[in-house]
Amino acid sequence: MFLLLPAPVFAEPLEHGLARFLALLLGDAPKVAARAPWDWIAHGVLFALLAWAWCAPAARAGQVRGVLMAAVGAVAYGGAIEVAQMLVGYRSGEWMDLVADAVGVGLGVLLATGIWPRLPR
Description:
This protein has 121 residues and is mainly α. Helices cover 76% and strands 0% of the residues.
């Protein structure tokens, strides 16, 4: 569907995205992160996928405790990453990133428990 839209709609975001990516590779991460609200979206999406992958087997087996343990583990993993980033000098851990991780985990759990059991086997 996005292929039907005119090319100028994608040209500017693509150029800005590539510029941000190169800035991240070249070590200007704090400046790029300060201007990039999509960072929280990326955290949420990635942790939704992680939580879905970790929770899906337990959800498929009907194990509520397993789903909860996987979800808590995913949030704890996100917290450990943020704390580790706070301890190193060249990265910055942020609590709002952890909030975005937790929201993503919640979405992943909803996907794993709501959609996965309904898929044909």
